[in-house]
Amino acid sequence: MQDKITVVGIYNGNETKTYVRGINLEDIIEEFSKYRLLVSFNGARFDVPFIKSEFPEIEFKQLHIDLMYPLRRIGYGGGLKNIEKLLGICRSEDTDGMNGFDAVRLWKKYEKGDEEALALLVKYNREDIVNLKSIIELTYSKMVEKALKT
């Protein structure tokens, strides 16, 4: 069985939009075309190729900043949740400690009729994308400093 996209979240700096398989996932085709900048964490290796495999009509012509790489260069390694902890970014009580495996588990529960599982999955996804803005705000000056030193 091929893995399928279940949830895609988009945050424009002011509001989040969530796209869910079986509800409105196809709407991402038009939504992505509205943006000139894409910011992700590990999106170059994971998210973008995964989305392209399911929606080849999405061109991803926008500038893409994958924060994983510049964060590593300034000393923040590991996954997104680890970097959030290092920077003092807290998640909600509901999602604290969750990871990608939990997201898969929640989706499977939702497929069996558990609407609360979907609500928690959406909340987890929203925190992932909204926290990227906080990460940029907290690390941008270090990134610039590192770039100017090399």
Topology:
Layout: E1 7-11, E2 16-20, H1 28-32, E3 37-40, H2 43-54, E4 63-66, H3 68-73, H4 80-86, H5 100-111, H6 115-149
Parallel strand pairs: 3-4
Antiparallel strand pairs: 1-2
Helix pairs in contact: 5-6
Q: How would you characterize this protein structure?
A:
- It is built from 6 helices and 4 strands.
- It is of the alpha+beta class.
- The longest helix is centred in the last third of the chain and has 35 residues, at 115-149.
- The mean pLDDT is 94.
Note the beta-strand portion: 5-15%
How is the quaternary structure best described? single chain
Q: What is the N-to-C order of secondary-structure elements (H for helix, E for strand)?
A: EEHEHEHHHH
Number of strands: 4
Report low-confidence residues grouped into runs of 5 or more: none
Terminal residue distance = 46 Å
Dominant shape: globular
Briefly, what is this?
With 150 residues, the chain is of the alpha+beta class.
Defining key terms:
4 strands; single chain; two-stranded parallel sheet; 150 residues; alpha+beta; two-stranded antiparallel ribbon
